[in-house]
Specification:
This protein has one helix and three strands. It is of the alpha+beta class. The protein has a domain of 47 residues. It has a three-stranded antiparallel sheet with strand order 1-2-3, with helices on one face. The longest helix has 21 residues.
Length: 69
């Protein structure tokens, strides 16, 4: 399965990664590569938890176009 993730660098220099299709699923790392490896693990664990709790495995995510101000 493929999931889109967002990547941001925080004030301390860590990369924070979130998976919008899985509410609450986020991770971080000292490098971009470490953060992406960590979010992969977090996604697997999130899916296992959601399945065990009878929750949907993902929520709908849509892309919208917005005119720049």
């Amino acid at each position: 399965m493929r999931y889109l993730v967002t990547i941001e660098q925080d004030e301390a220099g860590y990369y924070v990664v979130e998976c919008p299709a899985l509410p609450g699923c986020l991770s971080q790392g000292r490098s971009r590569e470490e953060a992406l490896a960590n979010i992969r693990e977090a996604i697997v664990l999130s899916l296992e938890t959601r399945k065990g709790q009878g929750l949907p495995l993902e929520v709908e995510v849509a892309e919208v176009e917005v005119a720049a101000p």
